[in-house]
Amino acid sequence: MRALITSDNQPVATRLRQGLLSNGVDCPLASVVSLERVRDTLVAAAGPPDLIFVVLSPDADAAIVTLELLRARSRARLCAVGAARDPREILRVVHTGPTDYLDENGDLGEQVVSLLQRLQALDRAEGDRGVVLSVVSPGGGSGCTTLAANLAVALAEKHECCALCDFDLRTGDIVSMFNLKPSHSIIDVCSNMRALDDELFDRALLKHDSGVHVLAAPQRYSEVQQVTPEAAKEVIHIASRTYPYVVADLEDFFHREQFQVLLESDRLLIAFRLEFTALRNIRRTLEYLLENGVDKDKIDLVVNQFGRPREISLQQAEKALGRKVNFLVPD
User: Fold this and answer.
1) Bond preceding residue 58 cis, omega within 30 of 0
2) Which of 10, 176, 196, 325 has its CA 20 to 30 A from that of 290?
3) In whole angstroms, what is the distance from residue 180 CA to residue 173 CA?
4) Closest CA to 177 of 200, 149, 156, 138
């Protein structure tokens, strides 16, 4: 397990690091950074941390802003470290979404032991989580939605069922590809978030004979704003708890709810055609994703409609992108 500590309180950070090292957690000195530098550290890291500690003192407001940033930019579990005197202050911190809270004035070594035990229990509870695959394209005309739909069908054939979530919120129409009538949509899920359970989620899905169960996009533009990043994250969590595979058809990678789905995904498939404009957009997309803390190892490049006349050669494309193409889908 790799840990990162972000803190403007060096004594607390030092004690915390010692507690982590004594319990076998990888936390080199370079993994202790200030609140101001944590974002750059995530981008430059050789591998994403599994656990990030945010020390609240001396400026709790700045630390809470950092917690909110990390919650949106990293899949690591977050742990706040602060004083345990004011329950209202603790509640304010907890509402930003950390997994746990440690008392900076207590024995941090003992608290780390208890924290690691709780995390092991969470890992066991989440062990049956399904695989989440997101499909996105940096531009139109790449066949992203067709790829997502066919991938879901193939997975359903192999595993009996697959969830297909249409996160193309503004223009998505996956239901038409399956000839389904959208009696429910993702809005039914998001508007009942407090009461959301497996049964309610299942009722919102449209069942297709192929075994693909579709969560439709909103039917009206006015509904799109109801799909917040928090709601998108919960949709992915409950879908992956219910289905062995979840395919998400994304609209883009920069709207906040889209980026949240991307962060929750195990694999990100970027579909494109071997055209000059597409390659330029792919380079910009990869730069953006890596700059915002996305693990490069979970990104797969997919050439769709491979073999079309007058397309750029695969060798030229890989040279321009500086990395290998992972999959080729023939025209």
Assistant:
1) yes
2) 10
3) 10
4) 149
Angstrom distance (rounded) from CA 208 to CA 212: 5
Residues listed for the chain: 331
Q: Which residue has the tokens 């380079």?
A: 283
Q: Over the range 67-100, which residues count as b (16 or more CB within 10 Å of their CB) and which as e?
A: bebbbbbbbbbbbbbbeeeeeeebeebeebebbb
Three-class SS state of 166: strand
Report how far Cα 13 is from the mean position of its chain's Cα atoms.
28
Output the pTM of the full model.
0.69
Report pLDDT for 75.
75
Q: What is the mean pLDDT of each run of 10 residues along the chain (331 residues)?
A: 92 94 90 88 66 94 90 84 88 86 92 87 68 92 92 95 95 91 90 77 92 94 90 91 94 91 94 92 91 87 92 93 93 83
